[in-house]
From TrEMBL:
Organism whose genome encodes this protein: Salix udensis
Listed Pfam families: TPR_12, TPR_8
Protein location: Chromosome; Nucleus, Nucleoplasm
UniProt KW keywords: Chromatin regulator, Chromosome, Coiled coil, DNA damage, DNA repair, Leucine-rich repeat, Nucleus, Repeat, TPR repeat
Signal peptide: none
TPR repeats: 250-283
Annotated Gene Ontology cellular component terms: chromosome; nucleoplasm
Polar residues bias spans: 577-589
Family to which this protein belongs: Belongs to the Tonsoku family.
Positions of region (Disordered): 564-589
Name of this protein: Protein TONSOKU
Positions in coiled-coil regions: 300-330, 474-501
Length: 1338
């Protein structure tokens, strides 16, 4: 294959390096090693670069003068920085600076200072409280700028003018100011950098200009000057494109995507991110950048969903606004206003999520008017706070101050200390943004004073963090900052101790529960307010007179009564329905807990925008993202009752793009839980409580901790000790703190109780009844005493009952969502099953003090044969897999080991080799290790295990980065493992060299039957031809996978020869680009002689419709068992040929894949109609066949009062409320619908065509297509699976089609997976999406 210019240069440099080493010229040897390292660094291959730079360092350090180490240390430090190994980066960069000072070399001192500044800057961005790093960054950047200025005025002998370094110094200082929110100062410095470029006539395409434009784009984006931001970002992209700076261009597109995202232009944002993704994928060692871009694309998709929801809610608000006209002066007026307020709360939440601050401002103003009409000062204070936030985000600071002050005054008038403290902190934040740092500090201190008086720990913490930031960053007052840090840690420690004690005391009490249940009854009684305010067990609740009134009272009566009911608000008031989205104006968020503690978030700014300072830096990617995962974006600081819904659910989806414009310095945010903090003991993991008060906790990483005291467990729901003896209780209500997130489900098995968190357990989109019963059995076994677990007997759950009703489906469980309080479910056991390996695994976990992995436990439980160890997709790592391997060592016998899709490395293979060496000496063995983190030496462990030479039959090591270093090991395995008949090395980053070694290792005595080498590049045609020639000599060879390899004409000829001589049963050639002629030639060769049924994959091969015509010939019609033609333009012409094939009684096709074949809707209908005459086809894939851009899209909505009647309506793809689909036979109009995810089991239901009666009103033709499609589906009796995804069908249409699918069944249940545009119909016994494509076994 031709070698590109870069590769030629590297090869030339390597030859020069070898020559220099051969003659002992150490100076040249070091120089060439440095040059090669620099080449790899510029290509983004940092690991290889580090290898060569280390050679340079070793040679220079050993043989050359000390001064020769200067460029070496600089290069190594820079590579370590790019790899985010800050510790080693600082070592080499400081050594670089010391050497430069010793040599009195100002040039190298300037470079070393710049590098150190960059490293400390990245360390600052990556941390939440390492402010010494930002001080060091500023120190080194300023020092570097002074040196650059000196060198520019007095150029060093034989050196450059140092203009570039001087300009870059402006860029670095500007970047620091931008990260500290000093945007005007940053703009000034960066603009000066561009002015210097113009004054010194720097080339228009110079990379210095690129970096300045990049950061100026970021600054203007933060300043909300969109046109200027776009101008600079596009200039950055153009320059990077012209100079071939691929990484910089990708980052430019990321910034442009961010700009469009903030302007709610999601289509444009997606296009930009896609361009960035293509560029990032073209580079080596840029996996982090690719991951971030993928995350951003997902975030934009989520934002589009929120925008759609917001538009629907706006329609709802319009209806509510119209209804208030007729309700004026009636008893419905207040109720209508409250409904409008709730709708506005939802809209405000959604607009803040997608950063639509203009909309946010509009809704906040409307909320203010509603609050005024309701005569509710608390809601009025909330609306003022929201208006202040809107103006702050729009950078109208004077107006923001005005409304925050009004908010403070309003809260003060009703004695709401908490609201006053929040308003003061918000005022301080605005003053900080506006440059009034002393005023900001005073406001923070005032907020802290109020919070102390009100005894609000979380607000105190927020104020302290802001004060710490001011002292540390704004005033550089290290002594005061240290004192603030001490106060913060002290407050956190005290809060944690209080919460731990409250947790122990916060046990389930029937009396307390009853009090909570009747709390709403107290609201109408003014005297009840005082009682609750004086109660400290569950937090005080203020019951204002206005809230205690009947919602149906006319407002005029409220105005009269309000004069006699002054609001006095408790300082310990509990927060209801508060937002959990932090903002610059609100450094804290509140989540309701039983002890009335609130969550406090970090205030330091986070950005998705990637810095492109100095060279091709991508350092900010990982650190920015890491902090993005610590804090949810854009919150609103509120008083009581601001939100009617909890946005924490949607918070996770928007951590990636939104920015948190806050400046706190502590990290109190837990990346695993958006509602947890250091001051909250709420746990969202599964909890298991024994009658003795011990708790078992299933953590977020699916691991189950062993028994610990309840007081320290973090559990909020508790079960009284005597509960186990109340065997006659039909339903039990546990202690409920008042937050739905804390609702618990208690399963009773005999006299044992298992308690879980309802919110995390009832995840209907990820759970089935079978999965629930399996997990329940595992949890029950874990909580048994050791002596009872000794036999390894686990329960078989027969059924579950609640309120006397059997819970036999997820629909039945869904009805429990409406229950108040906690839920008791009776579990019946139908026998016991012994799971020896599972018992051994748990014992080994105890010995190693490791928590059992819940996913692995479930896999071991459902395994029918204990000799088959299935541990795929269990998030196992080298440490957490150790108990399993120890258990296998005791278990001895094993026939299948499947540890695919985990995070295992070479350490696991070494332990596995030790187990296999000392264990079973005979018997077939399957080793499936695909999609892990194994390297080439993992295969060395197989070569060192003589037992495997006789036992190993199947080896799947695909999806691991083996590289060509594994070639000799693969060769040894093929030669030594005499029983090996399946080898899969797909996607292993191997090339021609390894394939040649594989071919050389094969001989006539080999029993190899299946070989997969797909998606490895580059592999030359000659290597494939040699391999095919060797395979032709094997007697039992039957299956070959070459997917993803480009097959030339000579290779196709060799493949045809193999097809003639070998009896192939499976041939996978997807994405090989063989074309129609190659496919015709190969298919003819396959069936030239006597041939068994074959499974043939020709997807994405560029095959035209002409190919389908030969499929109807007598030879082929009964010879193909599975056929994959996905991604080929089959179109209508090919559809007719395939219909002819399916209707032929001799056709024996079992699986037919026609995704993305441009069949059109008519083709889809014809294919399904053909199945009425087919008795063999079991799987049919027809996804992505409707051209939604040119044609129409169907949406249906059930008619009012009937779930069976479909009313049609045309809908344009570009519009929000209308969508159109060309059925290619009729134009159908389909009404709007609300699409929602559906993935559940459904019993078969009779399909009827009651649609006809409805359609007669509008036109019989309007419903014809869906009618015909449904009828065709109901006639496909043999079909077991069908996919119709991404064809424009809405949920309602999919449900109608599913009814037809279910009607075919006489026995058994149908299964559906309907979510967004995903539409899968399958059978209960073989559910869709259960197994990944790479894990399917024939």
């Amino acid at each position: 294959m031709p070698i590109n210019k870069e590769e030629q240069e590297i090869q030339t440099a390597k030859r020069a390096f070898v020559n220099a080493r051969g003659v002992g010229n150490h100076q040249e040897e070091a120089r060439w090693a440095n040059l090669i390292g620099d080449m790899y660094k510029n290509r983004g291959e940092y690991v290889k670069a580090l290898k060569w730079l280390r050679i340079d360092y070793e040679v220079s350090n050993k043989y050359l003068p000390e001064k020769q180490l200067l460029p070496t240390c600089q290069s190594i430090g820079e590579v370590y920085l790019r790899l985010h190994d800050f510790k080693h980066a600082l070592v080499y960069q400081k050594k670089h600076l010391d050497l430069a000072k010793d040599a009195n070399d100002l040039v190298e001192q300037q470079r070393a200072g710049t590098q150190l500044g960059r490293t400390y800057h990245e360390m600052f961005l990556k941390s939440d409280n390492d402010h010494s790093s930002i001080r060091n960054a500023k120190k080194y950047f300023k020092s570097a700028m002074k040196l650059a200025q000196t060198l520019k005025k007095n150029p060093h002998t034989n050196k450059s003018s140092f203009l570039k370094e001087y300009i870059d110094a402006h860029n670095n200082i500007g970047m620091i100011e931008m990260d500290l929110d000093n945007l005007e100062e940053a703009k000034k410095i960066l603009t000066r950098g561009l002015e210097i470029c113009d004054e010194e006539e720097v080339n228009a395409d110079n990379d210095c200009r690129s970096r300045l434009h990049h950061n100026l784009g970021n600054v203007y984006m933060e300043l909300k000057v969109w046109d200027k931001a776009q101008e600079h970002i596009k200039k950055d992209i153009r320059i990077c494109n012209r100079i071939g700076h691929c990484q910089g261009e990708a980052k430019g597109y990321i910034n442009l995507g961010e700009l469009h995202y903030r302007a709610q232009k999601y289509e444009e944002a997606n296009l930009c991110y896609q361009k960035a993704l293509d560029l990032a994928k073209s580079m080596e060692d840029e996996d982090a950048l690719v991951k971030e871009i993928d995350h951003n694309i997902g975030t934009v998709k989520e934002a589009m969903k929120v925008m759609d929801e917001m538009k629907k809610e706006e329609q709802n608000l319009k209806k509510l606004t119209r209804s208030i006209v007729t309700a004026r002066g009636t008893h419905h007026e207040r109720k209508c206003l409250l409904q409008q307020n709730a709708s506005l709360d939802s809209l405000i939440e959604k607009s803040s999520i997608i950063l639509a601050w203009s909309k946010h401002h509009e809704f906040a103003k409307r909320k203010k008017r509603i609050a005024s009409e309701l005569c509710d000062k608390e809601k009025l204070g909330d609306s003022f706070l929201l208006l202040g936030e809107s103006y702050q985000k729009l950078r109208k600071f004077k107006k923001a101050i005005k409304w925050f002050m009004k908010s403070w005054e309003t809260y003060k008038s009703i004695n709401n200390l908490e609201g006053q403290a929040l308003a003061k902190i918000n005022i301080g934040d605005v003053l900080d943004c506006d440059g009034d740092w002393m005023g900001a500090l005073n406001a923070f201190e005032e907020g802290y004073r109020i919070a102390v008086n009100a005894n609000l720990p979380s607000v105190q913490l927020s104020a302290l963090e802001n004060m710490h930031y001011s002292h540390m960053i704004r005033f550089d007052n290290e002594e005061e900052a240290r004192r603030m840090r001490h106060e913060i840690e002290k407050l956190k420690s005290e809060n944690w101790e209080i919460e731990r004690k409250n947790l122990a005391a916060d046990c389930c009490s029937e009396t307390d529960t009853e009090g909570d249940d009747h709390l709403s009854d107290c609201r109408s009684n003014a005297s009840c307010s005082q009682e609750i305010n004086e109660s400290g067990s569950a937090g005080s609740k203020y019951l204002a007179g206005a809230e205690g009134l009947n919602d149906d009272l006319p407002l005029i009566s409220l105005l009269r009564s309000h004069k006699n009911s002054p609001r006095t608000k408790s300082t310990q008031e509990e927060m209801h329905n508060t937002s959990t989205w932090p903002t610059k104006a609100s450094p804290q968020c509140f989540s309701k807990t039983a002890s009335d503690q609130q969550t406090v978030l970090s205030r330091k700014r986070i950005r998705i925008v990637l810095s492109d300072d100095e060279d091709e830096m991508h350092d900010e990617v990982d650190c920015s993202r890491e902090r993005l995962n610590r804090c949810p974006p854009e919150d609103v600081a509120t008083s009581n009752g601001l939100w009617a819904s909890n946005p924490a659910i949607s918070a996770c989806a928007f951590q990636g793009v939104s920015t948190v414009d806050s400046k706190c310095t502590t990290s109190s945010w837990n990346p695993n839980n958006n509602e947890e903090s250091t001051s909250s003991y709420k746990s969202r993991s599964l909890k298991i409580v024994t009658p003795k008060g011990k708790v078992f906790r299933s953590s977020s990483n699916n691991e189950v901790a062993f028994a610990c005291d309840l007081a320290a467990s973090g559990s909020k729901c508790d079960v009284p000790e005597n509960l186990a003896h109340k065997n006659n209780a039909a339903h039990l209500r546990l202690h409920n703190s008042g937050n739905e997130d804390n609702q618990c489900i208690v399963f009773r098995i005999d006299n044992d109780l298992i308690q879980v968190d309802a919110a995390s357990y009832l995840a209907f989109d990820k759970l089935s009844i079978e999965s629930m019963t399996v997990e329940l059995a595992c949890l029950y076994y874990l909580q048994l005493p050791t002596e009872k677990r000794s036999k390894g007997l686990l329960p078989i759950v027969q059924h579950m009952k609640c309120h006397g009703r059997v819970l036999d489906s997820m629909e039945a469980f869904e009805t429990l969502k409406g229950d108040q309080g906690n839920i008791l479910i009776e579990v019946s056991i139908n026998g016991w099953v012994q799971k020896r390996l599972m018992k051994l695994y748990i014992d080994c976990c105890e010995e190693l003090s490791e928590a059992p992995n819940m996913k692995l436990l479930k896999k071991l439980y459902i395994s029918e044969v204990e000799d088959e160890v299935i541990g795929s997709e269990c998030e196992l790592q080298d440490i957490s897999v150790t108990p399993l391997l120890n258990a296998l060592h005791t278990h001895k016998t094993v026939a299948v080991i499947d540890l695919s899709h985990n995070f295992l490395g070479n350490g696991t293979m070494e332990k596995l080799q030790q187990f296999l060496t000392s264990g079973q000496k005979y018997g077939d063995l399957t080793l499936d290790l695909h999609c892990n983190r194994f390297g080439p030496t993992a295969l060395f462990q197989i070569c060192e295990c003589p037992v495997l030479f006789a036992r190993l039959e199947v080896l799947n090591i695909s999806g691991n980065r083996l590289t060509d270093a594994c070639g000799s090991y693969l060769s040894t395995i093929l030669e030594s493992c005499r029983a090996l008949y399946i080898l899969n090395i797909e996607r292993c980053s191997i090339t021609t060299r390894t394939i040649q070694k594989v071919a050389d290792a094969l001989n006539e005595s080999s029993v190899l039957a299946q070989l997969s080498i797909g998606y490895n590049n580059p592999i030359s045609g000659n290597a494939i031809i040699n391999l095919l020639a060797k395979l032709a000599t094997l007697k039992s060879f039957a299956a070959l996978n070459l997917s993803g390899l480009k097959l030339t004409k000579p290779v196709v000829d060799s493949l045809c020869q193999l097809a003639k001589t070998s009896c192939l049963s499976r041939l996978m050639l997807g994405s090989t680009g063989m074309g129609t002629d190659g496919a015709l030639q190969l298919t003819a060769s396959l069936f030239e002689g006597s041939q068994e049924s074959v499974k043939l994959d020709l997807s994405y091969c560029g095959i035209m419709p002409a190919y389908t015509r030969i499929l109807s010939t007598d030879t082929l019609i009964c010879g193909i068992l599975e056929l994959n033609l996905a991604g080929n333009p089959i179109m209508q012409e090919g559809t007719n040929a395939l219909v002819s094939l399916l209707t032929n009684p001799r056709c024996c096709l079992k699986v037919l894949v026609l995704d993305k074949c441009q069949l059109g809707l008519t083709g889809i209908l014809q294919m399904i109609q053909a199945l009425g005459e087919n008795d063999y086809l079991e799987e049919l894939h027809l996804a992505d066949n409707a051209d939604l851009e040119k044609t129409y899209m169907l949406q249906y909505e059930s008619a009012k009062g009937s779930s069976d009647i479909l009313q049609p309506h045309l809908i344009e793809p570009a519009q929000q409320d209308v969508c159109v689909m060309n059925t290619e036979c009729n134009q159908l109009e389909v009404a709007d619908s609300e699409d929602g995810p559906i993935r559940e089991e459904a019993a078969p239901s009779d399909f009827d065509d009651s649609c006809t009666s409805s359609c007669q009103k509008n036109s019989l033709l309007e419903c014809q297509f869906i009618q015909e499609l449904s009828t065709a589906i109901s006639m496909a009796k043999q079909l077991q699976f069908m996919e119709l995804s991404n064809n424009g069908f809405t949920t309602q249409v999919a449900e109608a089609l599913y009814a037809a699918w279910s009607s075919r069944l006489e026995n058994g249940s149908a299964w559906r997976h309907i979510e967004d545009q995903t539409i899968h119909f399958s059978m209960e016994t073989n559910k869709c999406c259960r197994v990944k494509p790479c894990c399917r076994r024939d």
